[in-house]
Design goal:
Structural Genomics Hypothetical 15.5 Kd Protein In mrcA-pckA Intergenic Region, Chain A, S4_RNA-bd_sf, alpha+beta, 15 strands, isomerase, 320 residues, pseudouridine synthase activity
């Protein structure tokens, strides 16, 4: 349907939509990304219109839709903050490519796609600058994106080039088919050295940019095993069973062994400074999945970038 800037768009909630999150209902109805809607919710632009003449109720994005209720969205008449800017990222390289997929080695400081408040480079913009013409369904600013990495997390990220690959890969990630393997260096030595963290994650109640283990959070499961132990840290191989935002960072922090350099989740700033780290030591090392078209196994790996490799070498040097 689309939304017209400067106007109020309305939608009456159908019986079949009752109980769904309001942001999901609006995204499906109007073809607008949930990241853009999140910005509008935060600005109080989404309301449930009153039937009795009382004041309309401003909604949070997580509010549940009520059958028969009229949702009103005051569409802002300002520039779309999610416009894709083609911007070359020299540090981004191509790890794998065929007719349907392209896998990039995402550097730090690069987001997966445009989002409210982010003004830096993106994978989508970098691929556009390299001449990729990706026209899959979904929000325009997320062309081909089937999964994401945090801005400060490096490593393997796969992007769909065709609609058939996009649909199949979205299904794979939804059904947790791909094997997602990360390497992380955490402070101290976990006890036990290998194990599973099964703890729900939700938005931090006091800091909206963070996440935390919460009783009413979304189910989140992380498996880890030790690869190497140093004097002040441990190199872990981490397998994600679920894919929540900041999942590894939150779960290692919950173990009281945060990723080295992750000041947001309790890492020691002195150690980070000594190692020259300005972000968390966390790397998407390997991604394995059946090809979305041929079904053949695909495994893509990424080497450690320089800042992580140097920090790792310094920690190993503690033992000398």
């Amino acid at each position: 349907m689309g939304m017209r800037p400067g106007l109020t768009e309305r939608l009456q909630v159908a019986e079949a939509e009752a109980g769904r999150r309001v942001d999901a209902v609006l995204a499906d109805a109007f073809g607008v990304s949930r990241s853009l809607l999140a910005d509008w919710f935060s600005r109080g632009l989404v309301r449930a219109e009153s039937r009795s003449g009382r004041r309309d109720r401003v909604l949070a994005k997580s509010a549940k839709a009520v059958a028969g209720e009229t949702l009103a969205v005051d569409v802002p008449d300002d520039p779309d903050p999610l416009e894709v800017r083609a911007e070359r990222v020299d540090a981004l390289s191509i790890l794998y490519e065929d007719d349907d997929l392209v896998a990039v080695d995402k550097p730090t400081g690069v987001a997966a796609h445009p989002s409210p408040g982010w003004v830096g480079p993106t994978v989508v913009g970098a691929l556009a600058a390299l001449g990729y013409d990706i026209t899959t369904s979904g929000a325009p600013e997320r062309q081909g994106i089937v999964h994401r990495l945090d801005v400060g997390t490096t490593g393997v990220m796969v992007v769909a080039k065709t609609e058939r690959a996009y649909t199949a890969m979205k299904d794979q990630f939804r059904e947790r088919v791909p094997e997602k393997v990360y390497h992380a260096v955490v402070q101290g030595i976990p006890d036990p050295l290998s194990g599973t963290v099964d703890a729900p994650i939700g938005r931090h109640p006091g800091h909206h940019w963070k996440f935390a283990v919460l009783d009413d959070g979304r189910p989140s499961v992380t498996h880890y095993e030790t690869l190497e132990v140093f004097g002040r840290g441990t190199l872990l191989e981490v397998h994600l069973e679920t894919g929540r935002t900041h999942q590894i960072r939150v779960h290692t922090s919950a173990l009281r062994h945060p990723c080295v350099g992750d000041l947001t989740y309790g890492a020691d700033p002195r150690l980070a400074a000594e190692l020259g780290l300005t972000r968390q030591w966390l790397h998407a090392h390997r991604l394995a999945f059946p090809h979305p078209v041929t079904g053949e196994p695909v495994t893509i790996t990424s080497p450690y970038p320089d800042d992580l490799a140097h920090a790792l070498a310094a920690l190993r040097g503690d033992e000398d």
